[in-house]
Design goal:
single chain; 2 domains; D-Maltodextrin-Binding Protein, domain 2; about 425 residues; six-stranded mixed beta sheet; three-stranded antiparallel beta sheet; alpha/beta; 11 strands
């Protein structure tokens, strides 16, 4: 065995073999993914080519129908995984992958890679949603404390509206939904956080499955709680405009108003860290930091919504199995996270390998034994809802459409 290959001995040796890994990852992140596979390639002799596509969701079906499926694919949503499995082209996960997932992942994560009663795809990377970004300096100068309950967050918001900021354009919150053809998704994250915290995991699961209507009291209450912030002209949209400006403000740009002093709070996922300008220190005592959207009551388990990706195989060759097993291992998770820019919910991952304090904090939350995790609801719902009417409904809601109309329209779109 070559030096440095001790962790790769169980995968076998396949000199001259080639595999294609296909997915949506692009740009710098795709280069980092390829870099994370180099030790595996050198130790097994398998040359892995990663191909990324912005049209993955359409092209994967075309490739399957044409008999040209990749060896493995990184699928970004459980709902899409179900549709791809429905083609009959995906093979069940081998025992080596099952063993890794049982050791390194929670039962919830395994369930997201399961269709029917068959486990197909191990989780890969993850994100933690529901962070509220703020300026520690702003908090210190004004005597604000990080809230631990939703009521405390609303009290803080009211206090900020009365005494915070400088100038006539200041408002406590800055919110942006604009994201091209996906405008509105940032709003669905708010609702998902609130449903999980207010109504609990069982109601959340029923909602995702279509067994709990959007017009139900549980989901209505979540929208109303969001509306208490987003529809209040005293609370939004710091430095940007009124509530209607939320739809036209990009999610990338909205939070930057904190650095301008035009707002104090911005709700966005862990990956928002990449949006802060060069030179911004993201740390508990830095320029920017974040706290999780608070629970309803002190002592409630840490409730977290998030996203992730799943690795599915289209053949059962020994080489394919080896790569699929490697990508589900703690070895790969530590290798990839050490390169930077991503996190994982793999329990064998050392949080210290994360490239930033917010990444480390996110990993610790994901690994927490008491953490209540649920996958992004809109990613689990049928596409005509989760990636269409739910998005547009959020846009309509902050633009002045009545809540009853918004919720009824979403319900009517459910297939």
């Amino acid at each position: 065995m070559a030096a440095g290959c001790e962790d790769y001995g169980d995968y076998g040796t396949f000199e001259g073999s080639e595999l294609e890994l296909y997915g949506t990852i692009s740009g710098v992140e795709s280069e980092q993914l390829s870099e994370s596979l180099v030790p595996f390639e050198e130790c097994t002799g398998i040359a892995v080519t990663y191909n990324g596509s912005d049209e993955f969701e359409t092209e994967i079906n075309i490739r399957i129908e044409g008999g040209n499926a990749p060896d493995l694919a990184i699928i970004p949503q459980p709902g899409l995984l179900q549709r791809v499995v429905g083609t009959g082209a995906v093979v069940a996960a081998p025992e080596s992958v099952v063993a890794n997932v049982d050791e390194f992942w929670s039962e919830d994560w395994k369930n997201y890679g399961t269709v029917g009663t068959t486990f197909y795809a191990a989780p890969l990377m993850a994100s933690v949603k529901g962070w509220v970004w703020y300026s520690p300096t702003d908090f210190a100068e004004n005597g604000y404390e990080v809230p631990t309950t939703w009521d405390e967050l609303m009290t803080l918001t009211a206090t900020m509206a009365e005494t915070g900021g400088a100038g006539p354009n200041y408002k406590p919150w800055c919110i942006g939904f604009e994201s091209g053809t996906a405008t509105g998704w940032a709003g669905t994250d708010w609702i998902e956080d609130l449903v999980l915290r207010q109504a609990g995991p069982d109601a959340y699961d029923q909602w995702v499955n279509g067994d709990l209507d959007f017009t139900s009291p549980e989901i209505t209450a979540a929208f109303e709680s969001f509306g208490d912030i987003a529809l209040n002209p005293d609370y939004v949209n710091g430095g940007l405009g009124d509530s209607a400006s939320i739809v036209d403000t990009s999610f990338q740009e909205a939070g930057l108003q904190i650095l301008e002093g035009s707002c104090s709070l911005h709700h966005q996922a862990s990956f928002y860290e990449a949006q802060w300008p060069a030179g911004t220190t993201v740390a508990e005592d830095g320029d920017i930091w974040a706290f999780l959207t608070p629970n309803v009551a002190d002592g409630d388990p840490a409730a977290v919504t998030g996203g992730g990706e799943f690795v599915a195989a289209f053949n059962d060759s020994p080489e394919t199995e080896a790569l699929q097993a490697f990508l589900s291992s703690d070895t790969w998770a530590n290798e990839r996270v050490s390169i930077g820019g991503v996190i994982s919910a793999n329990k064998g991952l050392d949080p210290a390998n994360a490239s930033s304090p917010i990444g480390q904090a996110s990993i610790e939350i994901l690994q927490g034994d008491d953490t209540l995790f649920r996958f992004d609801a809109s990613d689990l719902m049928p596409a005509v809802v989760g990636a269409s009417s739910f998005w547009t409904g959020m846009n309509d809601y902050v633009s002045g459409t009545s809540l009853d109309t918004v919720l009824t329209n979403i319900d009517n779109s459910w297939p």
